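Re: that chain you flagged

S.,

Sorry for the slow reply, it's been a week of failed gels. I finally had a moment to sit down with the sequence you sent. For the record, here it is as I used it:
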Amino acid sequence: MKKVKIYALIDSRNKHIKYIGKTIQSLNNRLSSHCSLSDNDLTHRANWIRELKALNLKPIIELIEEVDENIWEVREIYWIGYYSKLYKLTNTDKGGKGAHKVKIDIRVRKSITSKEMWNNPEYREKMKHKLKNTQSEENRKIQSEKMKNKWRDDEYVKNMKEVSKKANPKNNNNKPEIKYEKISKLRKEQWCDEVYRSNRIIAQPNSKVVICDGVEYISIGEAARALSVYKSTIIKRIKSQHFPNYFYKNSSR
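Prediction finished late last night. Pasting the structure tokens below so you have them in one place:
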């Protein structure tokens, strides 16, 4: 049975593994094939090799293991998965596919074009100047005024609210708005009624009575509900020196 070599291409600058591949050729011949790049090869591996060649360097090739031809796919997939956790590989897939050509998408081509343009000092200065102008104080004021004018338009505000409701369906549950201030006022009025207060105390005999701004509440929970705040807020105010009017009835400040 034929043997297949699983190999690694290593960056000669920092000794990092950059590519995992397979071959039935000798390692030297396979390295020569990698270094003979066509103009149409725009893969990450090819660009990395071009970068080395520009510095008069070339990759180092090393054998990882030699396996039977009926299991090379499994072993290549394994080694790509293993080394991808240790290094940033230039492999475009998880392996096991044999020889193939990678179709370069529009984003990669745009990236290559942009990098080439950015290497031009004149273009770079032009873009920096343009960016500086767009971020000037005067420009920011103009943009700010435009947004303010938009939000003064009732129709625009209405449309934005509709967009927000569609984007956050969980918040749009058609529940009636709770008027917390009215509830708080109602609770305080109820606690001024001796009968109501005594009934609540009888219902919760083990609760600690809390006094908040001169009003007696049977518990922290009752005070929180009456004042429309969290229980933790009542507790913090009782412990804080900044709220002397919040304390337990039978404790001294």
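What I noticed first: The chain has eleven helices and six strands.

Talk soon,
D.
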